[in-house]
Amino acid sequence: MVNQGLRQAVDSLPKTYDPGGTESRWQKLWESSGAFHPDPNDSGEPFSLVIPPPNVTGSLHMGHAFNTALIDTIVRFQRLQGKNVLCLPGTDHASIAVQTILEKQFKEEGINRDDLGREEFLQRAWAWKSESGGRIAAQLRRLGYSVDWQRERFTMDERLSKAVVEAFVRLHQQGLIYRGEYLVNWCPASGSAVSDLEVEMKEVDGYLWHFQYPLTNGSSDDETTHLEVATTRPETMLGDVAVAVNPSDNRYRHLVGRTLTLPFVGREIPVIADDHVDKDFGTGCVKVTPAHDPNDFAIGQRHNLPQITVMNKDGTMNSSAGQFEGLDRFKAREAVVNGLKELSLLTKIEPYRHSVPFSDRGKVPVEPLLSTQWFVRMEPMADRCRAHLVKGEPQFFPTRWEKVYRDWLTGIRDWCISRQLWWGHRIPAWFVVSETDSIVTDHTPYIVALSEEEALLQAREKFGDDVAIEQDADVLDTWFSSGLWPFSTLGWPDEDDSDFNCWYPTNTLVTGFDIIFFWVARMTMMAGAFTGQMPFKDVYIHGLVRDEQNRKMSKSLGNGIDPLVLIDRYGTDALRFALVKEVAGAGQDIRLDYDRKTDTSVTVEAARNFANKLWNATRFALINLGTTTFDETFEELNFSDLQLSDKWILSRLARINSETSKKFTSYALGEAAKGLYEFSWNDFCDWYLELIKRRLNPGDSLTQSQLKDRRIAQQVMFKVLRELLVMLHPLMPHLTEELWHGITGFPDQKMLALNLWPACQEGFLDEELESSFSALFASIKLVRNLRAEAGLKPGQNVPVRFVTTNSKLADILHKAKADIQSLTRANKVEVFHPDELLGKPSIKALAGVSGDLEVLLPIEGLVDLDGLRKRLEKDLIKAQKEITSLSKRLDNPSFINKAPEAIILDCKSKLIAAKSQADLVIKRIAGLS
């Protein structure tokens, strides 16, 4: 209810909205009251969503802000639907990132992790996490995230760590986890294998070195003495075990089976035939180094070739590199090239721009390297996901990402899950070192178990009581624990957990397209393996936020935009609304304009202006409501008592309610924001509030009829604003919460965030009335434009004459005469059918046309007609020049044949507009005659 206290409060409201204090106050109230801490035993259909866990090392960037705005819009809408909503937050332990930070600190202290030992290192890591690891969560709070902070998770929490161990053991028992020596992405800087996601492809300027390998046993019949190969990594030639040619290549078919002598090393290597070789690329000969290249590794497997590693894990050359042993890999590259030159085997060096994989964390090129690691067999897990996908589980929005997901599940490679780090989930495997002289080798037997105690019992059963075991020093890839996120956060492996039973599987995953392969698919594979269900019903894939030049934001470009800067300037709600409203369609990238000199954004400023518009509209409503109160059910509204404008706005309200609900449900969030913006700014603020001003303040000594009409206007205004604030709440939660309390008078404890979406009163829908009002508003705009063109002052009242053959429109104009007079400063409004003007004397008027309506503005005696006529004649000359110029361009065959289609269409559009303008000016000049 509205009360006198609120009437006094509105007087003290600033004229513009100041978001800082309001947003902070509501964020604290929501969290302290447990507004978003649901009970699994509560009524309401369960709805759950777990946020993509940002790295614990992270700080807020625009991608987080965009993802948060989309997620929070979805969950707040679902909460307004009366559902029992859980939105669960958390962070990822980010193995490599944290370890990199710590080792930089150690370097500054003059020590390394080996000096500390594992136990002290982990103590330092947990201390860092305690002091600095909460920064990203604190920053996410600034965005007004309606998550359950009481259920906040961290991937290395005790319960989640238990889930990781359980998952590893189960997969090993099923034969889906194995240990072996295979080619992996190796980062020499961090001394660890890295995942594909931690590898960034960069375009670099390098060289393609061409050199020759001599045939071992002399020339052949065609006098071939050498085979020429080319490579961007000549240092790897020291590990070559063959040269491959295409079996259909007639140039080399006769050489298959012969041998070549590897320079520097002296090793004889065979010439082999393999379909992988592109005979049309380069010389058609490919050096084969299985231990240092993924494609070569596959060739080596097919031909049973040896694997010779010539590089240490720190990026230096090993003893198999012969005379180059001990050199850094890039120094070895120079030395090998110089050596080939001295041997007269180097035939050509050509500049070559190509993609090189870099370690995202180590910032150095990764090295494909043979290494003994732990792997997950992916195909059986992927096959289960493909079977679910046939049943539409999960559903992708936009649907085009379903194919990307399916393709990734096809022909999938096994996943290397071990990392040579200390920060992370230690692999639950214990080596029986007593079987291999107290050292760990590739052949040391091991036990996989849930605990060291269990491992020791199993080892004693198998190897005797005197066994000694040692846990694997490696940790699991961060993505292993992230793959369990949708269910480990809800209590799994305890499937009796109330949270798990209530909210699993989750309803929606909201994430960027760039990690669909690495995270989305791994979650579905893990969930299928452990729960038998897909972990979410829907996957909403969104695009990227691009900078003002439409570039992807990245650290290397230094073109990121700090969301906190924009929040401090414009407010959280303005930034959130701007980001969502910019989404042209699900999954599309958005571009955010930003002036880096002033830290301003026109787009976000426009959203802030929208917030001010709503603020001022609410102030207007409170001033004009005074102490008037209404039943929340609005049962007092009698349709027969409503004026035409009331029926129109209630029809528009019902329509925007229905459309917005459908758009939110189908993840058309940008379209929902645009629709609410147009309704709020144009329909409600610019038109309806203007239309009812005379009814709200009809003067003194009111009749019963005027009192009743004012109350109806107040009630409709109250109803529309109250329901509009609810519909806008998912997009602008702080502002709407504040204004909703203002308009309703409810105490802070009764929150809009926990209210219900307003019922859509479809009985008010009237499409014909809405169409008529669109024509009415167009006519009012035309009158205003004509007044401006005539140079009339605001205080000058002139009559307005409407002429139309449209009887329905004429009826609306007749009924809205009082409104038209009020909004156009007309002293008289007349509506005619053209036939009614036959025989009547003509008037000197400025004329305009809108659809099938002609508007006449009689101005004789009010303005300088000669001066106005001269201005119009100048406008006509300008339009005619434009017509001539554009016509010449379009008549020119050279222009038509050479110009881009978009330019030609633009010219045609401008010509149509210029001709229309000329016709209009001619009519207006004629009207003054």
How many whole angstroms does the radius of gyration measure? 37 Å
Helix percent reads 40-55%
The major pleated sheet works out as: 4 strands, antiparallel
Helix vs. strand class: alpha/beta
> Count the strands?
29
Q: How many helical elements?
A: 31
Strand order of the largest sheet: 6-5-14-16
Overall pLDDT metric:
90
**Strand residue percentage:** 15-25%
Q: Roughly how many Å apart are the termini? A: 59 Å
Low-confidence stretches: 1-8
> How would the global form be characterised?
globular
Strands, helices and their partners?
Layout: H1 4-12, H2 19-32, E1 46-50, H3 62-80, E2 84-88, E3 90-91, H4 95-109, H5 113-116, H6 118-132, H7 135-142, E4 153-154, H8 158-173, E5 177-187, E6 192-193, E7 199-214, E8 226-231, E9 242-245, E10 259-261, E11 268-273, E12 285-288, H9 294-303, H10 329-342, E13 346-359, E14 367-376, H11 379-390, E15 395-397, H12 400-408, E16 415-416, E17 418-419, E18 429-432, E19 446-448, H13 452-463, E20 469-471, E21 475-476, H14 478-482, H15 485-488, H16 498-503, E22 506-512, H17 516-530, E23 536-542, E24 545-546, H18 563-570, H19 572-581, E25 590-591, H20 602-625, H21 644-665, H22 669-691, H23 693-696, H24 704-728, H25 733-744, H26 767-790, E26 798-804, H27 807-815, H28 817-824, E27 826-832, E28 845-850, E29 853-858, H29 865-891, H30 893-898, H31 901-927
Parallel strand pairs: 1-2, 3-4, 9-11, 15-23, 22-23, 24-25, 26-27
Antiparallel strand pairs: 5-6, 5-14, 7-8, 7-13, 9-12, 10-11, 14-16, 17-21, 18-19, 18-20, 26-29, 28-29
Helix pairs in contact: 1-20, 2-25, 3-19, 11-17, 18-19, 19-20, 20-22, 20-24, 20-25, 21-22, 21-24, 21-26, 22-24, 24-25, 26-27, 29-31
